[in-house]
Design goal:
2 copies of one chain form a homodimer. The first copy, chain A, is α+β, with helices and mostly antiparallel strands. Chain A is built from 14 helices and 10 strands. Chains A and B meet through strand 4, strand 5, strand 6, helix 11 and helix 12 of A and strand 4, strand 5, strand 6, helix 11 and helix 12 of B. The first copy, chain A, binds a DNA duplex (30 and 30 nucleotides) through helix 2 and helix 3.
Chain lengths: 344, 344
DNA sequence: ATTAGCACTCTCCTGTTGAGAGTGCTAATT
DNA sequence: AATTAGCACTCTCAACAGGAGAGTGCTAAT
């Protein structure tokens, strides 16, 4: 009911449509892909494939177009992930130009998404490491004007975060040192999420409320940890505008709305980093469940710190996407970032 | 040759066109603006205005449309800058929601541009303070893993900047303290630009080369100052897409290209902050000289630190822009940011 | 100086038509 | 039994023509 020949036809149709967004007809297939079959036979096969839900017709007497289910089958069973020439060039550029940026993860991610979108012609996206699971190493407090404290937080993973915190009391540098060393002894080795919940729990305890030093320390620490966790990077909008899929204003509005709603994309990418699979993952069109992302696919992977995935990176593009090329690229990028983070 | 009546007609045409992007005809003017003249007379006046270069016709037998020169005259002499209801709402939202963000200038600017674009329906843009003219107050160096130093730079203006610097030598925290105190004594009170040039000059001097402490100090300091200076914030792309001016794909591509070329916009805004005028400034369409910004106008102003302008904020939109409203908004915003920076 | 009247121009919408591409079905062929 | 040739049918798209609508410029009258 679904033999080798059917697969070949489906594959040909998907590939042809990816190359060029015109519905593909039976005659075109016979000519271009040199099947030893007539167009009439292809028509029969296509009709079967349509009934099985892999293809659909935009209208009677147009050719066929893959459905999301069709793409899914293509990605899972048909497309080869072999590296192409393009990808080698991509790999070279990435490693050559970006390897030196290792101190500022945000710059690294932003530059990487830029290259990713340049080479793929889709939207490059990345989520910066979730600091929640990072491990507290130490904190330094520096006096800055009256009522302002500069905090510098170090994690075991090498993350450094600073923030200016308002305090409603005037403190000397000596006070700050005492507060810092309290925090350091108290929280060393915990991960930041645990510290956050620990603080909430302890806030109400009496011993905290009585001791001004401790209560001040806790308050400062809470401020530091309240910072937004995941930064998102998106780039390549003008790349996407060049695609024929976006020759229509409505389509453009759609994707730009999706882009501005960074919240949703963050959630989406978060899912990737939670499901700690090792491979590149693909979400196609309506599999996505998110309204406003109907016509788009996402190819993403996580990058890791040690063996723990801490963030994700990927590509958003139309469902009519060059999956094999894109998957290979995302694979390269995620591994590259992992490598850089771990300091080689 | 250009009397009161001509002005009134020009004003009516510009306003009508701003409301609604249809070429405006003579009959429409007489009906809508209740001139005590017939459409024929209006036609004569319009013909004169066209000859003077304030109006043009998209094609014979369409109505008239303002030229850049027409907008310029409107902005300089005709439009009233009175506050409208909208602006008060805008002012309230800005002050209520953003006054508390004063420690992180970048967050402040990014949030402000968001509101600005929301209310204006154009692109909100802002340039973060040029740190070059800020005054060195002190620097703190903290050890971070081997070969990495976290630097925290304080300026008199309250700016705090941190950066992780690679060093090719291993140092104890005590060494770092000595280096920091050398830098502090050496550079206290200078502005960052001067320090940068000073470093370049001194790098070659012998005494520097001999003394390892000093040479290391200088090297670290150079790294710190090499950071990118002006950050740019742009927001509101999806706002802009809703405007009838961008119902055409080509137009959308144009503005998105202009947006991606952040370099150019930075240059442009830089000009604003240099020409230290106190008012909101307007650049209309081709006055801009920048290719790729032909159909766009820029309304911008500087925000200040003391009396010195340090950055700029504004709006980019189609030449067919509601100038009086936008100018009022940019005025509010620039004054608001100035106020917040100076800590009220 | 102003205006009514009119011929003219240009856009935009609508309907028509014909070419082209592709399908599904049936009957013939292998 | 699978494949294919042939054909009628459907749908899109581009080109074209006509007509309504809006606006102008000019001239002659007020």
């Amino acid at each position: 009911m679904f033999d080798e020949r059917d697969r070949e036809v489906l594959c040909a149709i998907v590939q042809s449509y990816i190359n060029n967004p015109d519905p593909v007809g039976s005659r075109f297939i016979t000519r271009k892909y040199a099947f030893s079959l007539s167009s009439a036979s292809i028509r029969n096969i296509m009709s079967d494939l349509e009934e099985m839900g892999f293809l659909r017709q935009p209208h009677t007497s147009a050719g066929r177009v893959p459905t999301d289910k069709g793409y899914r089958f293509y990605v899972d069973y048909l497309c080869s992930h072999e590296q192409q020439y393009d990808n080698r060039a991509f790999f070279n550029e990435i490693t050559r130009e970006l390897e030196s940026i290792k101190n500022d993860i945000d710059v690294l991610l932003s530059e990487t998404t830029k290259r990713l979108s340049n080479f793929s012609h889709y939207l490059g996206v990345a989520l910066s490491p979730k600091s929640g699971s990072a491990t507290f190493n130490r904190i330094t407090l520096l006096k800055h004007r009256r009522n302002h404290v500069v905090t510098v937080l170090f994690t075991d993973e090498g993350l450094v975060r600073n923030k200016v915190v308002d305090v409603d009391f005037d403190l000397t540098q000596r006070d700050l040192n005492r507060i810092a060393s309290y925090l350091n002894s108290e929280f060393y080795g915990y991960n930041l999420n645990d510290i956050r919940t620990k603080i909430v729990r302890e806030m109400s305890e009496e011993k905290i409320l009585c001791d001004t030093l401790i209560s001040r320390a806790i308050r400062i620490c809470r401020e530091v940890l309240s910072s937004p966790s995941g930064n998102i990077f998106i780039s390549g909008f003008s790349e996407v505008l060049g695609l024929p899929d976006f020759s229509d204003v409505e389509k453009i509005k759609e994707i730009s709305r999706a882009m501005e709603d960074k919240h949703l994309i963050i959630k989406l990418l978060d899912k990737f980093s939670e499901s700690a699979k090792d491979e590149v993952q693909v979400i196609i069109g309506s599999e996505n469940s998110l309204a406003g992302m109907k016509g788009f696919s996402i190819v993403a992977a996580t990058y890791k710190e040690g063996s723990r995935p801490v963030g994700s990176v990927g590509v958003i593009g139309p469902t009519r996407m060059d999956y094999s090329k894109t998957i290979a690229m995302v694979d390269i990028v995620s591994k590259f970032i992992t490598k850089v983070i771990e300091g080689k």
